Each structure stands twice: as C-alpha cells, then as structure tokens.
Amino acid sequence: MEEEPNDNGTKIIETDKGAIDGQNKCPKCGSTDISVNARTGKLRCNFCRHEFEPEKLQGMETDISKLEGRVMASGTQDIVDDAQQNVVTLKCTSCGAEVVIDTAEATQARCHWCRNTLSINQQVPNGVIPDVVLPFNVTKAEAEEQIQKFVRKRKFYSHPKFRREFSTQNIMGVYFPYMLIDINTHAYFSGHGEREVRRYRRSTRENGNYSTYYDADLYEVERDFDLTIEGLTVESSADKLKRSSDNTNNVINSIMPFDTENSAKYNANYLKGYTAEKRDVNVEQLEELVDRQSKDIARYAAKDTIKEYDRGVSWSKEQLSVKGEQWKTAYLPVWLYSYQEKKNNNSILHYVAVNARTKETMGSVPINIPKLFLVSCIIEILAIIASIKIDFDYSWILWLVGILYFVVMRLRYRNSNERHYYEKETKRTIFNLKKADRFIKKETELSDSKISNENSERITGQNIQENILNKMNDLIK
Question: pTM, whole model, 2 decimals?
Fold first, then answer.
C-alpha cells in the first residue's frame, strides 16, 4: 500500500488498494452469498458456513508517537456532489451480464441472470465507501432486550400513545459514518494551583450565622508532556451534527465509545442485512471541532497530573502543538429504534440507540407532560406545607422540590444532556512528563471552596457544530 504525497505535503494512503469490485467469493467453496456472524464479528459463507477473519487495514501508522505531518486515508477524500458519481456499472464474472449499482442507495446487488452477489469495494468520491468498518457483534435479539429494558424503566410518564404503539419490530441495524483521528502532540500548561491547608467555621458580625473559610497554599504550576490521542471519533454526517431542542439524535453518539481498534478493512459484505448512512461532511469542516476536542483531551490529561491541588488549578497558558495526525473514515454499528411524535403541527423523531459492540443504551421517550406536571404540582404543594411546619434556616429549599422533580424527570425521559464524553473516554497516553511546582504564598480566610477561575475541566469542543454547518452552507453556495 503506497503513500502518495499531495501538493501540500499530506501523505495519502490508498486504503482500497487491492479491493475488487464484483464478486467476493468464499475462500472455501466460492459462493458469493456472504454475511456477518453478529456473534463473532466475522464474515460467514451462508452456503458452506465457513467463517473467515476480517482483513485489517494496512499502511496506517500504528505507533501514534511516531506520527509526523498529516496522513490521510483515501476514504477521507472530499465528496463530489454529482449524481453521476453514484452510478457504477459492474460486469458479472460468472455470466457476463452488466449490473448497474446506485451507490447512493446500496453497495451490493444481485446479478439478474445468475443471482451471484456483486459488491462495490473500491472507493467512489461520494462518501459512501469508508476506509474501515466495525462489524456488528450484538444480535438483534440482544438489542431488542436492551431497548425494552430502557423503555420499561420509563413507563410511568411515557406518552400513552407511545406505550400503545411501541414495538421492537421497528429496530434496525445501521452503520453511521464517522471520522477516526489519531494525533501526536506536545502539550504545555502553566498557571496557579491551590492546596487546602485548613477549613474552619466562623460567625459573621452581621447576623451571627456561621460561614466556612479556608486557608490554602498557592503554587505556580507547570506541566509539559508529550501526548498521543488514539481513535478520536467525530460524526461525519451533517444531520448528526445538528443540535436543537426538538432534535433527539444526541442520544446516538452518547453510546460511544466504540472499540475502533478492532475495525476491519471495508468490505461491502459487512453491510449486508443492515442499512448505512453516507458521509456528507469533509475533513475541512471538521478541523476546528477536532482541534477543540484535542485541547479538551489534553486538558483532562493534564488534570491527572495535578491531583494534589484539591482546590483546583487555574491555567493561564495552554499550548497544544500537533506533531502529526492521521485521519480515516469509518462505519460504526448501531441498533436503532425510532418513533415519530406528532406535536403542534410538528413532529419530533425520538430514538433509542444501542451500541452494537458494547450494548451501551441511551434514548429519548415521548413524555406525558400533563401527568408529569400534575405529579410535580402535588409534590410542590406537599413540600411547601412541610417547609411551613419545619423550622430550619434553609426551609426555602423545599419550595424548589416540585420544580426540580419536573426537570429531573424530563431529563430522564428526554436525555437532552447526554453526550459522548470524549475528553474522558478517548484513549490517550502521556509520556516525557515534566513537572514544576513552585510555592508562592500562604492564603488565609478564603471564602470560596475552589480557586478563582478554576478551569482544569473546561470543555470547548462541544458547542461548535453550528459553525461546521455554516461552513458547509457557504461551500454549497
């Protein structure tokens, strides 16, 4: 597999070298009727039942600490928005018939004469053929069980119409498009950190109430280290990048991470029996998102080195220098249940998604708002009565119980706050760590429990999807 540098020095890895369009034959009996065994993740001949190991992608750097410059798998090529790129004509090697496949709809078709299966394995510039695919290894029956459990736990406030119409027969296996990015970086952080020395309570002169105060040691903190980030996973579908109050697709990506290190080289047979969504976002539109998320991952990596600062750290300088990166496209497997809720002349599409590798499940269930509101009001009334009868300084908190109950239950059913915690879950490795901790002074009678401007857990790469969509619209115009 050869590396071909382009005009700007980027190395292009031709990941479909050796891929052949046409018949994919069983190595034992020659049959073209091949599918995936969901229990093993291997391809299986449906005629002789022979199973064969997935072919691994070759040519990509596996030691991320050695990455230099930019390496791009050929599946990341910019998408050509042209209907002519979708239509591929194959000649059947068994009978000679010509078979037309619209790759926008499918990557396989049967020869209308000899009934052999013909597959598209070579990449076409419409985003439909990725570099790698992660096979399903959770069966439909197992996914149905997970979805039923999820919905059953949310039965009390679920909408009556949803309960009547809910059926696991609607579950589909779907491959969603993602970008997988490996990054070799150097990180530098400097700022101030505080260690708690003493905590005590003291009454105030105004009203005699007691307040908590803190004494702490203030340090100047520096962290310098090399960092590798492996398998950073970002959506490459514009529809999944959209975020709004009526959009429930956030639950699809909240079931990450996937074990992407077990991905196989793309083969159309992995898609047999499942649907697939085509990539429609280019690398250029995702660069800012990847940059932000990389910095978040580095910040959380640095946090692992400052645990002694129990009052936190305020970084004043953060630098992340990229030494090398590589991108590839992937299909990742999800079992998906969808339900359309009609609401005020609009419709909301709810999803319950199951990670088809780990069984991680998350979803959104239509809520019976009047019932939830009524119960919340009853709880609020009882809490107000309790606040009148109970004599303590913070009885006003009970006035919030009904409101909090409503919010918590709504979040439990809608899960609008759920997401992929990439900053914690992405594989990262620190090496060549250098620490510098210089005592500055002792601080006394601090009223806050944390250092001012504590930012060691700051997240910046979660809310820029709108920028990506705007860039895409500009390109279209």
Answer: 0.84
